[in-house]
């Protein structure tokens, strides 16, 4: 495989469900006053500085096997998994790198945190991209940097969304790792062996964002914060659910049921958020996953119509999109669970 010619992977078409690249108001982020929780932030930075995974992402001889033995369909699904994962990690690297560069002079504490997290994300993206070379493909990250559209998120939205993406990433990686530890016959590729330590990077990153959020109590107290926390919880959960159910074949290839996997990850992430957010979603409500499953079925129907140019199919797609949005609104309006976090009493 080392002597094979690598082909540049054509990036997947952007959509609402593909990993996105973000930018923000760097001046506003630099002006965040984190002094009220500086001790916790410093403690997490010390964890980052120890760099527990400095020597973790080293490929061993198992990677030199020939992966042409994988069935073509499984191979295609796995390449898509690698691409999406690499793109998401690289997106995190770019955002954190820009934040560290722009905050360096005004807010050195946060700048260092973002710099160390960008280091971790760069390793993750590089390791995933190197894995793609085992399939004679490579993702042109430089091209992605220039060609992708960047979505602007206000700093507070970056904090909410990135906290959740890191925590849900932890639960995804650790759940896959634990499953494949029990069912090694389903471990179709050696990268999964690296997920246990890998997910600890995600967990520490989430803890960093949690500490920064705690330094901004206005983002975690009051009625506005409750609305935003519900919004981002639902956005992250629904995006993962729709994405994974579209790719159920990949999870089946590693011995997992995509719906059950996602439901477990959603429950665990919701529990993790209970320690920080003023409200969490009532994921045990009988209609919660029922509505998500209905969203999934509608989304699959929309995907079938994606390439059609007929007027009838366009009208059908518009109708399905309206039905999907209606279900998401129903999910958002479900009564949330109050958390009554004790840490807020110190402010």
TrEMBL record:
InterPro entries named among the record's database cross-references: AcsF (IPR008434), Ferritin-like_SF (IPR009078), Rr_diiron-bd_dom (IPR003251)
User: Domain named Rubrerythrin diiron-binding: which ranges?
Assistant: 80-212
Q: Give the enzyme's main class according to its UniProt record, as a single word.
A: oxidoreductase
| Record EC number | 1.14.13.81
Reaction equation(s) it catalyzes: Mg-protoporphyrin IX 13-monomethyl ester + 3 NADPH + 3 O2 + 2 H(+) = 3,8-divinyl protochlorophyllide a + 3 NADP(+) + 5 H2O
GO molecular function terms listed in the Swiss-Prot or TrEMBL record = iron ion binding; magnesium-protoporphyrin IX monomethyl ester (oxidative) cyclase activity
**Superkingdom of origin organism:** Eukaryota
Query: Where does the record say this protein resides?
Result: Plastid, Chloroplast
The GO annotation for biological process reads:
light-independent chlorophyll biosynthetic process; photosynthesis
Pathways per UniProt? Porphyrin-containing compound metabolism; chlorophyll biosynthesis (light-independent)
Q: Which Pfam families match?
A: Rubrerythrin
Keyword Chaperone carried by entry: no
The Swiss-Prot or TrEMBL record lists the needed cofactor(s) as: Fe cation
**Family of this protein:** Belongs to the AcsF family.
Q: What task does this protein carry out?
A: Catalyzes the formation of the isocyclic ring in chlorophyll biosynthesis. Mediates the cyclase reaction, which results in the formation of divinylprotochlorophyllide (Pchlide) characteristic of all chlorophylls from magnesium-protoporphyrin IX 13-monomethyl ester (MgPMME).
Q: Provide the protein name.
A: Magnesium-protoporphyrin IX monomethyl ester [oxidative] cyclase
Originating species: Vischeria sp. CAUP Q 202
């Amino acid at each position: 495989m080392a002597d094979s010619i690598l082909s540049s992977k054509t990036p997947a078409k952007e959509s609402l469900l593909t990993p996105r690249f973000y930018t923000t108001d760097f001046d506003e982020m630099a002006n965040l006053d984190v002094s009220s929780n500086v001790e916790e932030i410093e403690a997490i930075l010390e964890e980052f500085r120890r760099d527990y995974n400095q020597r973790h992402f080293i490929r061993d001889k198992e990677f030199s096997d020939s992966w042409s033995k994988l069935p073509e369909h499984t191979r295609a699904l796995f390449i898509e998994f690698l691409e999406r994962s690499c793109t998401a990690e690289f997106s995190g690297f770019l955002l954190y790198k820009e934040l560290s560069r722009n905050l360096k002079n005004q807010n050195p504490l946060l700048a260092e945190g973002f710099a160390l997290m960008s280091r971790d994300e760069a390793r993750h993206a590089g390791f995933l991209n190197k894995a793609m070379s085992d399939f004679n493909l490579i993702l042109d990250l430089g091209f992605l940097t220039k060609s992708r559209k960047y979505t602007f998120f206000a700093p507070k939205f970056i904090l909410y969304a990135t906290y959740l993406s890191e925590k849900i990433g932890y639960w995804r990686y650790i759940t896959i790792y634990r499953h494949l530890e029990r069912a090694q016959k389903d471990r179709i590729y050696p990268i999964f062996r690296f997920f246990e330590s890998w997910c600890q990077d995600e967990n520490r990153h989430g803890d960093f964002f949690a500490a920064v959020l705690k330094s901004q109590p206005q983002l975690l107290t009051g009625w506005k914060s409750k609305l935003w926390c519900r919004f981002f919880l639902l956005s992250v959960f629904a995006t993962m659910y729709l994405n994974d159910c579209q790719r159920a074949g990949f999870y089946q290839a590693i011995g997992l049921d995509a719906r059950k996997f996602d439901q477990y990850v959603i429950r665990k992430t919701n529990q993790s958020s209970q320690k920080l957010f003023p409200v969490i979603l009532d994921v045990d409500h009988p209609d919660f996953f029922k509505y998500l499953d209905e969203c999934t079925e509608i989304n699959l129907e929309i995907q079938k119509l994606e390439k059609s140019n007929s007027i009838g199919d366009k009208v059908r797609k518009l109708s399905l999109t309206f039905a999907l949005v209606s279900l998401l609104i129903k999910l958002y309006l479900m009564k949330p669970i109050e958390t009554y976090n004790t840490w807020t009493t110190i402010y």
